[in-house]
Design brief:
By secondary structure, this protein is of the alpha+beta class. Helices cover 60% and strands 15% of the residues.
């Protein structure tokens, strides 16, 4: 049993190393200016300047630059860079230590990519540290955008009457990792009126704070 567990752990470790190396290789495929733009969006989020990291926008930039990555590989690149900067902030590391640890973790790093990360963290690491310290107690997602439209229900779980009016809501929410997701749902007119009334009550309370 112990031998089997050790073999499984060793295989998992190998798989993790291969995954990291592949992600690092994909990062190395990016031109320095494109890597800097991608990192800048992540750093801007970590500094509280933007509410999330828009993977769709990053994907468009990659395609325009001729970098072909599938959605999973792109998400791995963004997540790896995010976790790298987040871990560097949490451990209060300098740019020199950051680059040294990255080099120890994978031999696939290009010199140009490490130079970009070193420069950006040297310039903005302190700003990230300051903002993250002030946000340490926050653990909920943030509403980025909300869109709505009025329609007529033909078939719906909540609006079962044919040709009855309903309101469709589309929410964009940034979770604590910075990833933006979309949530859509429908409401009857009565449900929307109650929703609106609750929002007015919240706004009235906030005005007194």
């Amino acid at each position: 049993m112990c031998i089997n567990n050790r073999i499984q752990q060793k295989n998992k470790c190998k798989s993790y190393i291969i995954c990291v190396d592949k992600t690092v290789e994909n990062i190395g495929r990016l031109p320095p200016d494109l890597l800097a733009e991608t990192c800048q969006q992540i750093l801007s989020h970590l500094q509280g300047q933007v509410r999330g990291v828009d993977s769709a926008e990053i994907s468009d930039k990659f395609q325009r630059a001729g970098i072909r990555l599938d959605q999973e590989a792109l998400q791995e690149v963004v997540q790896f860079l995010f976790l790298t900067f987040r871990s560097t902030e949490k451990n209060n590391l300098s740019a020199d230590v950051l680059v040294a640890r990255l080099g120890e973790g994978s031999s696939k790093w290009s010199k140009a990519a490490l130079q970009v990360l070193h420069r950006l963290w040297s310039d903005q690491g302190a700003l990230v540290n300051t903002h993250q310290e002030s946000q340490a107690m926050l653990s909920i997602g943030q509403l980025v955008d909300m869109q709505w439209k009025l329609g007529m229900a033909v078939s719906s779980d909540t609006c079962r009457s044919l040709n009855s009016p309903h309101v469709s809501l589309l929410l964009k929410i940034a979770d604590t990792s910075g990833q933006i997701s979309q949530r859509s749902f429908e409401m009857t007119i009565a449900q929307f009126q109650n929703f609106y009334r609750q929002f007015k009550e919240m706004a009235a309370v906030l005005e007194t704070v």
